[in-house]
Every structure is written in structure tokens, then in C-alpha cells.
Amino acid sequence: MHFHKERKNHVKTDSENKIVKVAIIGNPNVGKSVLFNKITRGKAWVGNWPGVTVEKKVGRIKFNNVVMEITDLPGVYSLTANSIDELIARRFILEEKPDVVIQVVNATNLERNMYLTLQLLEMDAKLIIALNMMDLAEKEGLKINILGLEKELHTPIIPTIAIKNIGIRELIQKTIDYSKESAQKKFKVRYNPELEKAIETIVEELSKLGVEGKLELNYRWVAVRLLEDDSEVAKILKESGLGNIVEKASEIRGELKEKLKTDVEFTIIENRYQNILELSQKYVERGVRREELTDLLDRILTHPVIGFTVFVLAVYSMFLLSFNVGAPISELVSEALSVYLYPVLRNSIPNEFFSSLLADGVLEGVGIILTFIPILFFLFLEISLLEDVGYLPRVAFLFDRYTSKFGLSGRAIIPLLVGFGCNVPAILSTRVLGSDKERKLSIAIIPFMSCGARLPIYILFTSIFFRGIEIPIILSIYLVGVMVALVSAIIFSKIFFHETQPYYIIEMPPYLLPSIQNILSKSWIYIKSFLVRAGSIIVGISLLIWILSITGPEGYLGVESLTDPEKISSSWLAIFSKTLEPFFKHFEWDWRVITSLMLGFVAKEVVVSSMAVIYGVGEENLMIELSNYFNPASAYSLMIFTLLYTPCMATVATIRSEVGLRYTFMIIVYELMIAYLTASSVIVLAGVASHGFW
Amino acid sequence: MTSEQCHFPLSNVKEGSKVRVIGIIGGRGLTRRLMEIGILPGIEIEVVKNNCPGPIIIKNEIIGSICIGYGMASKIIVEVV
Question: Pairing between strand A19-26 and A555-556?
């Protein structure tokens, strides 16, 4: 992985023009994202780290004429490179060499957080500790001797309460000041005598080679890492032609293992914790732990019956708000566009082609984007709220025993349920999940959650062919979606991720009152990334479909082809559909159905209105018209196909922005295949059933 | 009763009981991961919730309060304090 390779050695006195590069690191759930938002005042650029589905946030601020660029590193417990998150964080610190690294430490959980502190100090990071959640620590009766700890660690410690904006200014000021100071004394992690001897031997080997400058790493850190059998560090050394040192270290490690009767790396971990316990004995005083509220809420929220009830109510009210408040706003927006803006564009521009280009091509795409926003906003508001009060880990606990069978942790239940409302926010909200694998897995199956836009199609067809039993039939379609999703989860986790049981550690933080500013800025970040990253693709696809509808082998058909069934039948879209007809013969669908399905890619609800145009009837007469072309079996298979085939372009664009083009392509192919196979088996089963009965 | 018989996986521990960690029987990666968050041989932990065969919530001063999956919990060998 290569970050932009500019390793400028700035002159430290020249602070006026220099950008201070800061990295924020910390364990999961220490209030890191809140602190990041407070420092950057919510103005951050969000992307993914190259090649992986791990979120990267970068923000720039100006403070007293100094520009700071702050990068939020993934939440990690250590820098051992156990996971992709740890690797990203470690590489960033080693390769980008930030001027200052701020570790956000949860004051109520100092010891475990300090494991990462020691690793950062061993790596020679220029460290500042933001001792966060000081108010909770006080409530729990913890007394931390900050001055003493600061002195012994040779590391500035700034107490903060990020959620209340306390200590943020001091932290920023200290960061700027500290970036100008040159490094002084360092805290040394002490290991047992055997380990120290081994470390010394390797350090000596390294210094003998005089590779100073060539290897910009702390030798003691390299030595410890080699003893811990770190393949990344071994690789760096081998690439620098120091393979002999790697071998030597591996020899020493083998000898030590004999002596210690255990893996060297485990002894090193225990030794680090010994350092930490000594420090905490000196500087931390523990009072009586009082967590009545958290304990009480936990008993309720993780209760097998009450917990599930609360969960159902929470999700129900989430949908209620989004679709009762958000959806009407969306409708207003779409009405404003189609009733007011559309005729203006169509009438005021004399050139037919350009006016249709703007109205039917661009406005169509922009309209779809805009109508998504109100629903997205409310859904994200509520997801961020549930996340910030600390509810999600409890949901994970409740559902994990069921979801883990499908390779997902319990937390995945939230994005999956959101998928029933709309797939786009569901895919974006997989960011609350822990690992890259889990995100990719949930993203692959979310499209099978039947979203609201597919419902009009079910309603139309069930009301024609399944009169009286509409509801059970529609429910059965939802059920097919869920079943396909679960089976796909197993297939994907076995084939691509080679595991079925996810290993994960989820923090159970105390419940917190949420900060409205933080929730708003989180929701805004979600919406912004949808606008920026999916927006252009959506407009692009609408334009493409518009072009394919108004042109054909005979050339330009005129924009009337969008409303004229005669003309559209000679468009590229129709020609292409006709060539596909043989594949859909057993469904008894002709090209008109296929074209409607293709147009459904723009947005699934478009299938119904497209059918009206293509069959040349109004939507009110569509039912009669369709009853001539379909029978119950072919109608049911069409509904199943609509449920399972390629999700709408907004979803596809969002998937692409989250997991990249290759994986998106694979998901699309897989989904088309599954849709085809499942819909075909409906036809086969219906055939068997009718032969059996008659 | 031999000492072997008093040792059992954390996943089998009843809610509310306190246990001492004896060792971890997973692969290197898993063992390292658990040790790094403070699940070290010799420490005592409290089992707050056990959704067996599902996840488990454990708590102590170093680790804090965390939830780990059944798979992980069944690889941590403990004894009753």
C-alpha cells in the first residue's frame, strides 16, 4: 500500500506555512470519532483507505494561523497487524510520519488503552494522549494522577470530554506546540532479562550494519517486532537486504522459546501489561465502581424477551419517522421537479433534443438523487443516534447467536433491516460494522432485502393475478428475499472469506447521552458521500438509458419515443431486449417485459410506469392489458425476478463507492444469476404442481 | 477431582460468576488478539451475560466490558475462583 510518498523533512522552526500533520488513533469506542468531529468541526473528507472497505476521514483546520491536517485512523487495540485496520494504522504512522499522533484514551479503561500507548511509544511516534471521558471516570470514582503519568511517560496528557467540547482547544494548542518541540527523553518499555538480552543482540546487529538513514525505524522497535515474529517488519528488512538479521532474530526467538517454555510473543504481551499494571498502581486510584444505570439498562436491553421487544419498537419507530416524515418530503421534492421544473425545461428550450436531454436525462437522475435525501437523512439520524447512545453493541449481543451462523455479527441486523426501507442507506450504514469482510458480506446480501420501491410492482401483479390472497403472496416474496440473502451469506462467507464464524470483540460502553451536533454531522457525512460518490454515476446512467431509448439502429428516433410505444419498439433498448427474448421464453415474457425490467434499473418503481408506456396504455388500463399477457405463474416469477435482479442504479452506485468496481460487478452478476435461477424454478414448480393437480 | 476437571471453557460459565483465566487454546492469531486486550493467564473476569450458544459479555478492570462471540469464548479456558 502506498500513501502519497512525500516525506518532506520540514524545518521545524518554519511553522507559518507548514501543514501540521496529525493522526488520531485509539481503541474502538473511546470517543475517537466525536473528538475528530469536534477538532475538524464536522468538516471532513470521507473516503476509503486504498483497496479496502475501511473508512478514511481526513479534515483540515486552521488554528491561530497554523494549518492542521488531521487523519482519523481506524479504531484498533494494538499495532501488531492482526487485522487490516491495524495494518492501515501502523503503515500510516511508519510511512506518513505524522508530526503528532493523538491517542484518544478512554479514562475509564486506562490499562487496556495503554497497551496501544506503549506500542506507539516503542514506534517512536510523537504522542499526545487525549484522556477522554474524564467525567465518566470521575463518576466511577477513578482518580488519575495525570502529572505523574505525564512525567513518567514523557508524553503530554490532555484531559478531555469530547462530547461536551471540553479540552478540545487545549488539545489543538498542545498539538501545535508539541509539533515544534524536538523529541526528548522517551519512556522505555521494560521486558524480562532474557528478552532484554535478545533485544540488545538484535539491536547491535542492526547498528553494526550502519543502516541508519536507510532504515528509518527505531531499532529497538524492530528488534521487539522481530521477536514477536512480525511478518511485515521481516518483509521490510528483507527488502532492504537485511534478510540475515531476520534469520538471526528467528534463531534467537527459537532459543528463547525453549527457555521460556512459551511463545515469545505471548511473553512480550504479558511483559507489556506488567509495565502497564506498575504504572496504574502508581498513578491510578480506584474508588467504588458505580454503574447502576448501565447495569440496569443492560439487563433490560439484552433480556431475551424484553430486549427483542424494545428492539422491534426501536426499528418500527425508525421506519415510522423516516417514511412518515421523510417520504412525504421526498414526494414533495419529486412533485416539484416533475410538475414545475420538468415542463419549464421541456417548454422553454426550443430545441427538442436538448430540452429532452435536460428534462428526461439529467433531471431524471438529479430528481432520483434529491428524492433519496429526505429518507436518507432521517434514517441516518436515527442510526447515528442508536450508535451514539451505545445501543448497537447490545443489538449485536441479542442477535449474534442467530446471525453468526451466516458469517455475520449481530450488529449486521441493523443495516439488513434498513434494507427493507431502502437499500442505499442500508449499504452506507454497514460502516457501523467492524470488519472489512463483514461489510462486504452484508453489502452483497442487502439488495435481496425487498425495498419500498419494489412494492408497487408486487401490488400491481398480485391485484391482477392473486385477488384475495395479495398479502400472503407479497409476504412470501419478502420471505424468498430473506431466504436467498441468508443462503447467499453462507455461500459468500465460505467461498470468499473462508470462514463462517466471525471472530470479533465488541465493546459494551456505558450508555451516553447523545450530542445532537455529533449526530447531525454524522448524518451529513453519510449524505455527502452519497451525493458526491454515487451522484455522478446516477446521472450518468440515466443519461445512458435516455440515449438508448431515443436512438436505434435507424439512428435518432426523436424524443417522442419516450412516450410512443411504436417508436420505442425500434430503440436500442427494445432491440437489445428482443435479442434476449429466447432466454426468457420459459417465463412467457416478451421483449416489452424485458425492456421494462431494464428501465427498472433506473429505479425499481419505474417498472410499472414503463410497462404503461411500452404496452401503450395508461396506468389505469394497465391491469386489463397485463392480464392478457401473464398468468399467475409468470406473474409470480416476474415478481421474484424483480425482487432479486440487479438493484436500482442508486444502490449499484453506492455499492461501487463503498467496495469498488470489481466487487460490485461480481455482486451484479451473482444477483442476475440468482434472479434467473429462482424465477425459473418458480415456473418449473408451477408446472409440476399443475400437472400434479390436473 | 483432578485439576483438569475444574478447567472449562468460558462459554460454559454461568452468568454472574467470576472465573480465572488459565489459558487460551486457539491459534496464534486468536491467542494474541485476546491477550492484547487483556485476557491474560491469571487474571480474573466476571461473566455478565451468557447467551450460550451465542455471545458472552465479560467484564474486569483492565478489559472493561466487552462482548465476544461463542467461538472465541469457547477457546478461553478458565477455572472458578
Answer: unpaired
Check the CA dihedral B59-B62-B64-B67 and report its sign: negative
**Backbone phi, then psi, for A489, in 5-degree steps?**
-60, -45
Interface of B with A in 2-31 (CB under 8 A): 28-31
Beta strand A100-106 pairing with A127-132: parallel
Instruction: Find the Cα–Cα–Cα–Cα dihedral B41, B45, B49, B50, rounded to 10°.
Output: 30
- For the question of whether the overall pTM of this predicted structure is more than 0.90, the answer is no
Separation CA A667–CA A253 (nearest Å): 45
Which residues, including other chains, have CB under 8 Å from residue A694's CB and lie 6 or more apart? none
**Are residues A386 and A301 in contact, defined by beta-carbon separation less than 8 angstroms?**
no
Q: How many CB atoms lie within 10 A of CB A180?
A: 14
Interface TM-score (ipTM) > 0.90: yes
Cβ–Cβ under 8 Å, residues A601 and A646: yes
What are the DSSP calls for A624-685, one per residue? HHHHHH--HHHHHHHHHHHHHSS--HHHHHHHHHHH-HHHHHHHHHHHHHHHHHHHHHHHHH
**Cβ–Cβ contact B68 with A under 8 A:** yes
Name the β-bridge partners of A159. Answer: A131
Alpha helices in A240-305, H assignment, sequence order: 243-260, 264-283, 292-301
Asked if the Cβ–Cβ distance from A266 to B54 is below 8 Å, we say no
Q: Which three cell numbers stand for residue A234?
A: 521481516
Query: Is the peptide bond preceding residue B53 cis, with omega within 30 degrees of 0?
Result: yes
Q: Mean pLDDT in chain A?
A: 87
Model confidence pLDDT, tens digit, residues A372-383: 888 888 888 888
